[in-house]
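hey m, so remember when u said the tokens were messed up on ur end? i reran from scratch. heres the input so u can diff it against urs
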Amino acid sequence: MREMGFPVWSRAISAKGTVKAALGSVNVPVVCAGVNVMPGDAVIADDDGVVVVARKDVADVVAKGEKRHADEEGKRKQLAAGVLGLDMYNMREPLKKAGLVYLDDPEDD
């Protein structure tokens, strides 16, 4: 399936085949891997995992995801430019107050 360009995720293997002589169901609640999935819910998957987002929350989750992606892109650029995470997250002073001793502290120069 992946060779054909279709992403595939599986929790288990089942040798049961489908039956074409009977009608199936569409737009009904299902349970997948122990999670209730309702019609209209968004199921998002990548190689790290799968998440189900309730239909009513999809727009909010998309907006928050886009914001996080933009924020992370900005942080990647700062890190690539040589900014230390220690400084980007303003952790130098709180760690110093907690007793961390810096061996190469630019503030001591």
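this time it looks ok to me. The chain has two domains: 24-53, 57-103. if urs says something different then somethings off w ur setup not the seq
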